[in-house]
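The aim of this short unit is practical: by the end, you should be able to scan a pair of folded records and say something sensible about each. We start with the first protein, listed as its amino acid sequence and then its structure tokens.
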Amino acid sequence: MGWMEQARIGCVERTLAGLDWVARRRGLADGMPAHLATGIEGEDTACFYLRRKGYTVVARRWSAGELPGDVDLIAWDGPMLCFVEVKTRTARDATPAEVAVDNHKRNILRRLARQYVRQLPQEAAPPVRFDVVSVYLVPGEKKKFVHFEGNFGWSERQERDSV
């Protein structure tokens, strides 16, 4: 990715942050619980992080309608379709953010991924990967990202066999 694209992504990211700041100052974001606002900020930040890494983000907060849950980000990493769960924290705990992606959440993401892949126009399903991005938005510190590519697979059995 060239410097011009990097600069454009940075400009859009700063503009979004400025609009969020204005909304908070005017009290427009007050109706949302703090943990939801933090989660959305983390998803926005992770989206720009992935774009800087060369990913093509095609969906944010995607849901299938009839199925419970949503996928935070769906992106292409070359020919690989990535379903990304974003976990955001505002403090460094003893427990890392990515631990919050438990069996229940992984199963929801798998179910949603199957539905998403079924709706793609191509005949053959693309290769799929499930990623987790931990975003640390600690006040007074620089944003930190930990990206776990291929954090889990299509089944729990697959994960145990690869360990």
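Turning to the second protein, read its sequence before its tokens, just as you did above.
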Amino acid sequence: MKIGICNDHAGVEYKFKLIKYLKGKGHEVVNFGTDTTDSCDYADFAHPLALAVENGEVDKGIAICGTGNGMAITLNKHQGIRAGLAWNTAVAHLVKSHNLANVLVMPARFVSYRMAVSMVREWLAAEFEGGRHERRIAKIPVKEK
């Protein structure tokens, strides 16, 4: 699987560790994030990841910032993105199984790296349940008037 990953300055450490972890599991990883801890703007990295997911250049995405909220808000401005913010494995499972999240967002300042790996593992393994969730997902995109 080809996975895009982006981060701001708060997510640099986790990003590098996750890239190593994902590659070790046989995934190809495309880095859309900053590689330094110099202060930067999350939107500058979220938009390129979102476009890559929407255009099929990557299969899924992972985004990491301090709270996760900035990334999630920015990513979800894109019609083809369903970014789910998770802070534990149960939420990581649900954003995929119920919301078919194609981007997992994590708050580096509020979860341990161990939890981040567990969330990535759970999100990648989770299956979309379909059924009532398909109807709900179909209502997400903004309809033209």
